[in-house]
C-alpha cells in the first residue's frame, strides 16, 4: 500500500539525522508522482466523458473504436500479466536476510528503542489542557492577608508590641520556595493561638510558643512533601524501561519475533533507508493514536451494514493470503451512494468504516510470525463503478493516502478486474511512475479475461460466483475444500468429464463454462457389457445469460461412469469448471 522507491544500500548508523534539504527532496518525489497519477486519471476521465458524447452522436462508429481500443488494451494487459512476473514475498526470517538488510533492521531497532525511551511515540498534550490549569487557584495568595488582619485587630499591650516582632524576622527572610508551605501552617497556628482576652503578663510566652509550634509544623510539612516526592519518583518508569508500544497487537521493541516482521514492512516500504523507515513508523503510530484506532474503530458499530457487499473478505489465494474484494459497482444504487457519500459527515463515517474493516482483517486473518502470512490480495471490480469525479472522490483520495502512509507492504497482489478500456489507457500513462516492485504486484484485466486472470492467483472454489468462480455463501453440497477441475474447451471441439460410480451410489456434480454459448449434456454408461446407456441430461445449448452453474445428481444402481459433455461450436476457447462427489449407499 505504501508506494516503493528504487533500491538503495541501507543507511549507516551515523545517518540518523535528516537535514531539511533531504526532507524536501524526499517529499518532492512522491508528491510529483501523485500529481502525475492524478493528472493521468483525470485525463482518462475526460476521455471517458468525451467518448460518451461522441457515442451519442455516432453510436456505431464509436462502438467500433471502443471495441478496437479494448482489444488493443487487452493485448497490453496480457503482456503485463505475462511480462512483469509475479511478485514473490521476501522472507521475514532474520537468519535469511542479506547482510545489508539485517544491519538496517538492527539500526532501526536501536532508533525505536531510543524513541521509546524519549517518549517520541506519545502524542503532545492538547493545548486546551495547558491553558486551564486547575492548580493555579491553590496558590491562595489573598490568604496571606488574613493572619495580618487578625494580628492587627488583636489588642496587645505596649511591652508586648515592642518585643514580639523580634522572633518573626527570621520568618520574613525564609526562601521564596517555602512561602506557600509556611503560609498555610502560620494561618492555622494563628487561629489556634488567637487569645480570647488580652493578658499582658503572659502574651510574650504565648507568642514564643506559637512561633515554636509553627516552626515545627513547617518542618513536618517539609518532611511530608519530601517523602511524597520520593514516592512519586519511585513510581515513574526508569529510562531503561519505557512504556510498551503496540501496533497491530505487536510490540515495537522487545524479544517478540513478530516485531521483526512489522519493522521489516516499514524498511521495505522505504527500500531499507533506515531514517526514512523510522520517520514513517513514527508517523504511523502517532496517526493511529489521533485517529483512535484502538479506542474507537475496533469496537465501534458505525451503522453501515448495507455496505457489506461493497468491501468484504472471502477465502484465500493459492499461497494462503486472505482475499479482500472491492466491488464499486454496488454504488450504482443511488440511495446507497447517498448514504455513503451524501455529505461530509457521511464521507467521514465511510472512511472510518473502511479503515475499521482493514484493521479487523489484519488482526483476524494475518499472522506476523516470521513464517506466517502477513499480507493480503486485493481484488477491485471496476464494472459499473461510479464516475471518478463524483462525491466519493475526496474520501477515496484520502483513504488511498492513509493506506499508503500507514499500512506498508500489506498487499501481496492487487488485481483490477472488469477494467474499462479508458482505465487501461490511464494505466499506460501511470506506468512510468511506478517502480518494478509495484508493477509486479498490480494486474489489470479487461472484462473478457477477468475470471481466468483471477484463477491464476485464486482457485475457482475460492472465487465467488459473481466473479466467475464456484463459491456460494449458502452452498450445502460443496465447500472450499472440494477441489475444482479446470479444463479448456478448444474452438469447435468437445470436452468430456468422466465420473466413476459404484453400485447403489449417488453422484452429485456442478459444472460451469465461462461465457457459456456451448452445448451441454450428461449420460450414464454401465460397466457391464450390453448395458443400456441412460440419458441423464439431454444435450442442449446453454446461452450466456442462463444460470452460471449447472447442477445435477444421479443414483447409479450398478457400477459405471457418468459422462458430462460440453461441445464448443464457437471460434474461441472456453474455460470449463467442474467438481463432483460420489456417495455410497452406506453414507
UniProtKB/TrEMBL annotation:
A single MF term (Gene Ontology): lipid binding
A biological process from GO: cell division
Biased composition (Basic and acidic residues): 20-67, 128-141, 148-184
Biased composition (Low complexity): 8-17
Region listing for Disordered, in residue ranges: 1-208
Protein name (database record): Patellin-5
GO cellular component, one term: cytoplasm
Domain CRAL-TRIO residue range list: 299-475
GOLD domain mapped to chain residues: 481-584
Keywords assigned by UniProt, alphabetized: Cell cycle, Cell division, Cytoplasm, Lipid-binding, Membrane, Transport
Location within or outside the cell: Cytoplasm; Membrane
Predominant location category: cytoplasm
KW Coiled coil (keyword) present: no
Amino acid at each position: 500500500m505504501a508506494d516503493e522507491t528504487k533500491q538503495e544500500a541501507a543507511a549507516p548508523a551515523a545517518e540518523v539525522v535528516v537535514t531539511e534539504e533531504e526532507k524536501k527532496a524526499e517529499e518532492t518525489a512522491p508528491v510529483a508522482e501523485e500529481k502525475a497519477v492524478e493528472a493521468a486519471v483525470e485525463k482518462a476521465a475526460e476521455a471517458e466523458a468525451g467518448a460518451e458524447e461522441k457515442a451519442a452522436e455516432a453510436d456505431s462508429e464509436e462502438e467500433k473504436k471502443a471495441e478496437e481500443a479494448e482489444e488493443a488494451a487487452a493485448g497490453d494487459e496480457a503482456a503485463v500479466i505475462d511480462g512483469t512476473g509475479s511478485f514473490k514475498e521476501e522472507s521475514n526470517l532474520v537468519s535469511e536476510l542479506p547482510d545489508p538488510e539485517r544491519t538496517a533492521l538492527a539500526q532501526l531497532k536501536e532508533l525505536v528503542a531510543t524513541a521509546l525511551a524519549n517518549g517520541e511515540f506519545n502524542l503532545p498534550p492538547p493545548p486546551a489542557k495547558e491553558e486551564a490549569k486547575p492548580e493555579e487557584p491553590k496558590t491562595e495568595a489573598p490568604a496571606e492577608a488574613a493572619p495580618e488582619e487578625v494580628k492587627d485587630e488583636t489588642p496587645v499591650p505596649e511591652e508586648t508590641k515592642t518585643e514580639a516582632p523580634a522572633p518573626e524576622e527570621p520568618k520574613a527572610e525564609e526562601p521564596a520556595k517555602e512561602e506557600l508551605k509556611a503560609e498555610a501552617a502560620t494561618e492555622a497556628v494563628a487561629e489556634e493561638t488567637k487569645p480570647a482576652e488580652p493578658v499582658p503578663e503572659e502574651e510574650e510566652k504565648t507568642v514564643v510558643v506559637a512561633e515554636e509550634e509553627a516552626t515545627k509544623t513547617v518542618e513536618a510539612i517539609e518532611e511530608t512533601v519530601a517523602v511524597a516526592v520520593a514516592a512519586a519518583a519511585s513510581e515513574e518508569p526508569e529510562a531503561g524501561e519505557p512504556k510498551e508500544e503496540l501496533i497491530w497487537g505487536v510490540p515495537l521493541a522487545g524479544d517478540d519475533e513478530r516485531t521483526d516482521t512489522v519493522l521489516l514492512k516499514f524498511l521495505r516500504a522505504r527500500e531499507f533507508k533506515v531514517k526514512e523507515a523510522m520517520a514513517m513508523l513514527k508517523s504511523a503510530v502517532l496517526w493511529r493514536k489521533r485517529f483512535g484506532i484502538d479506542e474507537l474503530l475496533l469496537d465501534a458499530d458505525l451503522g453501515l451494514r448495507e455496505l457489506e457487499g461493497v468491501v468484504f473478505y472471502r477465502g484465500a489465494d493459492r499461497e494462503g493470503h486472505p482475499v479482500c474484494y472491492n466491488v464499486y459497482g454496488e454504488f450504482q444504487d443511488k440511495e446507497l451512494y447517498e448514504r455513503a457519500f451524501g455529505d461530509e459527515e457521511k464521507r467521514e463515517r465511510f472512511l472510518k468504516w473502511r479503515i475499521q474493516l482493514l484493521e479487523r482483517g489484519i488482526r483476524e486473518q494475518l499472522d506476523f510470525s516470521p513464517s506466517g502470512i502477513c499480507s493480503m490480495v486485493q481484488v477491485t471490480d471496476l464494472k459499473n463503478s461510479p464516475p471518478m469525479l463524483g462525491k466519493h472522490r475526496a474520501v477515496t483520495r484520502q483513504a488511498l493516502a492513509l493506506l499508503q502512509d500507514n499500512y506498508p507492504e500489506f498487499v501481496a497482489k492487487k488485481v483490477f478486474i472488469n477494467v474499462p478500456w479508458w482505465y487501461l489507457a490511464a494505466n499506460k500513462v501511470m506506468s512510468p511512475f511506478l517502480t518494478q516492485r509495484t508493477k509486479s504486484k498490480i494486474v489489470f484485466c479487461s472484462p473478457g479475461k477477468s475470471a481466468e486472470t483471477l484463477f491464476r492467483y485464486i482457485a475457482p472454489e475460492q472465487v465467488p460466483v459473481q466473479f466467475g468462480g464456484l463459491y456460494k455463501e449458502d452452498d450445502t453440497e460443496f465447500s472450499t475444500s472440494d477441489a475444482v477441475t479446470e479444463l479448456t474447451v478448444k474452438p469447435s471441439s468437445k470436452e468430456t468429464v468422466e465420473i466413476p460410480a459404484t453400485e447403489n451410489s449417488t453422484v452429485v456434480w456442478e459444472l460451469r463454462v465461462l461465457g457459456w454459448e456451448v452445448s451441454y449434456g450428461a449420460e450414464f454408461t454401465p460397466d457391464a457389457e450390453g448395458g443400456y446407456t441412460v440419458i441423464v441430461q439431454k444435450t442442449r445449448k446453454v446461452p450466456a445469460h442462463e444460470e452460471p452453474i449447472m447442477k445435477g445428481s444421479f443414483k447409479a444402481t450398478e457400477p459405471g461412469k457418468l459422462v458430462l459433455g460440453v461441445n464448443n461450436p464457437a471460434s474461441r476457447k472456453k474455460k470449463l469448471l467442474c467438481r463432483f462427489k460420489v456417495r455410497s449407499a452406506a453414507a
